[in-house]
């Protein structure tokens, strides 16, 4: 029997129902674990799709027209400075990389003059140089435009004469890229100021740009199974099946004995172990439960004595004994409780009559001690020897 009286009483009272309930809980926990594993949670997130990048780089070049610093016919590419005498013509070559060979790309090159005073532009003029639909080869659209820089210098000089003491003139080269990739359509404006002196000119900034395109899409992401939930459910399943097996494998537990053990534990401070003589007290009052005996002990300020040999709980108050025993009345507790195994029925003769124990001298009483040999009820020592 289990060492916990309350658990013993629970199993004795609800053992079968408890085992079934625990088994059902275990099955449900296993099913829930499978469901959690098979149906992980999902979440939504945004993701960039249909990503495309359109980038443009512009190369400047000029061919030397007379011998001097360079030989005539020399081609200068992306030089940090060009001279009016050697390279009066500047070639602008924009290259636009697109994602699709079916894209449409237009390059427009123009000269821009701006007049500003105190940092504020009060006049501007744009002079187109070319507008070309560039052909796309291997994902790159290329075009060329040649600018006569001497003409640009003359235009700038005329503007400066008109605006003497009024404002400053800034001249820039602009490359406008218009594109349509089939998915995205937009334009890029590349601009660089052109610095000019009496003998030379150069671009102050590179003519390049890059544009990223994308679309935002909402997608559903499947998350990993909930490991903590799975662990808890598996633990519940193991504990439930273990509890069901534990309850099922317990031997039959007597409900009354289990309940009495609970009372013994609950009222242990009022119960003492001891031996109760058969003849103690003149009056013997049988009570229904151990709890009733404890109540009497509390009311009379006495202790309950537990005689284990007689399976008896009793309170002795003067000449009155209040007792409780599973064995019934006071006389039924006179002898220690003994357990016997199953015995076979007495052997009968052919006639079916039960044989009579042998007697002495053919007519005397059956063998055994006569009633007269029992000790005097008042002889304590004799009863103790028995």
Let me know the largest β-sheet: 12 strands, antiparallel
The arrangement of helices and strands along the chain is HEEEEEEEEHEEEEHHEEHEEEH
Number of H/I helices: 6
What is the CA-based Rg, rounded?
A: 57 Å
Low-pLDDT runs: 340-372
In round numbers, the mean pLDDT is: 82
The secondary structure category is alpha+beta
Number of domains: 3
Large-scale geometry: rod-shaped
* Approximate strand percentage: 35-45%
Protein name: DUF5305 domain-containing protein
Keywords: Membrane, Transmembrane, Transmembrane helix
InterPro entries: DUF5305 (IPR035185)
Organism: Halosolutus amylolyticus
Summary keywords:
386 residues, transmembrane, DUF5305 domain-containing protein, 6 helices, twelve-stranded antiparallel sheet, alpha+beta, five-stranded mixed sheet, DUF5305, membrane, 3 domains
Briefly summarize what is shown:
This protein is α+β, with helices and mostly antiparallel strands and 386 residues long.
What report would you give on this structure?
26% of the residues lie in helices and 37% in strands. By secondary structure, it is an alpha+beta fold. It folds into 3 domains: 5-41 and 223-249, no CATH class; 50-219, no CATH class; 267-385, no CATH class. The strands form 2 sheets. Strands 1, 2, 3, 4, 5, 6, 7, 8, 9, 10, 11 and 12 form a 12-stranded antiparallel β-sheet that branches. A 5-stranded mixed β-sheet has the order 13-15-16-17-14, covered by helices on one side. α1 packs antiparallel against α3 and α1 (5-38) crosses α4. The two termini are 31 Å apart. The chain crosses the membrane at residues 20-38, 229-249. Residues 336-386 are annotated as: Disordered. InterPro entries: DUF5305.
